[in-house]
Design brief:
Blueprint lengths: L4 E12 L2 E12 L3 E5 L6 H7 L8 E6 L2 E2 L4 H10 E4 L11 H11 L5 H14 L15 H14 L4 E5 L7 H16 L3 E5 L3 H7 L2 E6 L2 E6 L1 H6 L4 H10 L3
Helix pairs in contact: 3-4, 3-5, 4-5, 5-6
Enzyme class: translocase
Main location: membrane
Organism: Streptomyces griseoviridis
């Protein structure tokens, strides 16, 4: 059990109409922990990730951040989304703004930073993700891997307590995946609390504190990566691993 919980889901249920996508999910993520969520398509991984910053609402159960229930709406919700950054499959960058402007925008709007301070912070973060030299370019001038690293810098600019990654590399060409994972590994080493939905098993092995395996909207296993990959307990996990580790 995590010593100092940052994110807690308690008996969370989520439906889309008749479809029961999250079934009695209970999960705790401690401060500084990296939890990787894996499982077959349609198992509820992305939905789980999106409930943590209320991009998806839940029908029952509770979700706590730092011991407090997630806010419903309004200003408190905007603040929550600043505290729990999200990096998506698609990079969601503004095409008509430069890389620097993309990273600075929310800092000035949500965090109310002065433009110069925001730009200074943005440049530090672009340096951190290896893209300071590209600050004046527009997203279309960058590769997919570079755009995703800009999106990570943008999420970091809000100084979040935690970062959620929803399949951050699945839209990328294979040769760009590693540059994004490397930035994520570095964040993990720096102690960022992260929940990562991914198909990248190498990342799960090397960077995760825990692997959460989901199937049919439930958490089937929640264990240290080494144990999970070498001796999965459930038939579902064995079956899943046998299919993906053959590659």
């Amino acid at each position: 059990m995590a010593v100092d919980p940052l994110i807690e889901l308690r008996d969370v249920n989520k439906y889309y109409g008749e479809l029961h996508v999250l079934r009695d999910i209970s999960l705790t993520v401690g401060k500084g922990e990296v939890v990787v969520v894996i499982g077959p398509s349609g198992s509820g991984k992305s939905t789980l990730c999106r409930t943590v910053n209320r991009l998806e609402t839940i029908q029952s159960g509770s979700i706590l951040l730092d011991g407090r229930p997630l806010p419903e709406e309004g200003r408190a919700l905007a603040r929550l989304r600043a505290e729990v950054g999200m990096v998506f499959q698609s990079f969601n960058l503004f095409a008509h703004k430069t890389v620097l402007q993309n990273v600075s925008l929310a800092q000035t709007k949500v965090r109310r930073r002065k433009r110069d301070d925001a730009d200074r912070r943005s440049l530090e973060l672009l340096e951190r993700v290896g893209l300071a030299a590209h600050a004046a370019k527009y997203p279309a001038q960058l590769s997919g891997g570079q755009q995703q690293r800009v999106a990570i810098a943008r999420a970091l600019a809000m100084e979040p307590k935690a970062l959620l990654f929803d399949e951050p590399t699945s839209a990328l060409d294979p040769e760009m995946i590693n540059e994004v994972l490397e930035v994520m590994r570095q964040l993990a080493r720096d102690g960022m609390t992260m929940v990562v939905v991914t198909h990248e098993m190498g990342f799960a092995r090397s960077a995760a504190n825990r692997v959460v395996f989901m199937a049919d909207g439930r958490v089937v296993e929640d264990r240290a990566p080494e144990e999970f990959f070498t001796a999965p307990r459930s038939e579902r996990a064995k079956d899943f691993l046998s299919k993906i580790l053959k590659h």
